[in-house]
Design brief:
Blueprint lengths: L11 E5 L11 H13 L3 E5 L3 H10 L4 E4 L1 H10 L2 E7 L6 E9 L14 E4 L5 H13 L10 E4 L3 H9 L5 E8 L7 E4 L13 E3 L10 E5 L4 H12 L5 H11 L4 E2 L7 H12 L4 H4 L7
Parallel strand pairs: 1-2, 1-3, 6-7, 6-8
Antiparallel strand pairs: 3-11, 4-11, 4-12, 5-8, 5-10, 8-9
């Protein structure tokens, strides 16, 4: 398909994920649209996706030509329709970001293959480390996450999942872990080391962490002219100058900045998706909720 022949009067539709939806983020769309429009000298219209499936369809069908994408969705769409990565959110330095299942130290669950028939606590269907990546980890092993668990419960926060596992309301939970890159297997911080304060971190242990995991991506479809795509990516390198965007990016990634994208950082997800399909597990189904929530 030939690149879009945009004129200066054409608007550019930019997709935003559902994680940037809600009262706390109500100023983000307008602030972002104004900043990008000024920087690239074309009208940018932000389009709020209601779900990740909605965002995926918008990109696939061309109703948006650029978008802020979580890493798994970026890789999924790049594999299916082809995307150009323009910039990536910068995570806090000095640690490796992983996803992990965790359970009680005295649990008889010692491997991911022992999860069959157990109950699991997820954070939220949109949570990367608390849902998406742990399911992809199972799929890569040939374990269909849609058929694995006897019970699945969404607790809406990492702290609540930690409480549920500590109280034995569920057998395992899924959350993030920050690994020390200098010391093998050393966890610096995790979802169960946060509040509530009366959860003893020593009473919980992780299974095999999955990662290191990359951050969110600013990407464009290959219909967008290269000159505009380059200007859009460069704009995100300066996006920390918008207080509203810097604050939400800081809450999600530990920093309010974006940086040039390192596409190699996403290979861990590409390989996992390839392995899942090689093992006969459908990737897209694995990344979506097993049931309505």
């Amino acid at each position: 398909m030939a690149p879009l022949a945009l004129t200066p009067s054409d608007s550019i539709a930019f997709g935003l994920p559902p994680s940037l939806f809600g009262p706390r983020h109500q100023h983000i769309p307008n602030a972002l649209a104004a900043f990008l429009s000024n920087r690239i000298q074309r009208q940018v219209v932000t389009v709020q996706a209601l779900s990740y499936d909605d965002l995926s369809l918008q990109v696939s069908h061309g109703s948006v030509v650029a978008a802020w994408l979580p890493p798994a969705l970026f890789v999924e769409l790049d594999r299916s329709v082809g995307l150009d990565g323009l910039a990536a959110a910068e995570r806090s330095g000095g640690v490796g970001y992983f996803a992990a299942y965790f359970t009680h130290t005295d649990s008889d669950i010692t491997s991911l293959r022992a999860l069959l028939g157990r109950s699991v606590g997820w954070v939220d269907p949109s949570s990367a480390s608390g849902y998406v990546f742990p399911r992809l980890q199972l799929a890569a092993l040939g374990i269909d996450p849609t058929q694995t668990f006897q019970e699945e419960v969404f607790f809406r926060s990492h702290e609540a999942v930690a409480r549920a596992v500590a109280d034995r309301a569920v057998d395992v939970g899924a959350t993030f872990v920050h690994m020390d890159p200098r010391v093998p297997h050393k966890i610096i911080r995790s979802g169960w080391s946060l509040n509530p304060h009366d959860v003893d971190p020593q009473s919980l242990r992780s299974l095999d962490p999955f990662g290191p995991l990359p951050a969110d991506v600013i990407a464009s479809t290959r219909d967008l002219p290269a000159q505009i795509a380059d200007a859009l990516g460069q704009s995100f390198l300066d996006i920390h100058k918008i207080p509203e965007v810097r604050q939400i990016a800081s809450r999600q990634f530990g920093t309010g900045r974006f940086m040039p994208i390192n596409l190699g950082a996403y290979d861990v997800l590409r390989r996992a998706m390839d392995r899942a399909e090689g093992n006969g597990v459908e990737v897209v189904a694995s990344l979506r909720p097993s049931r309505l929530v």
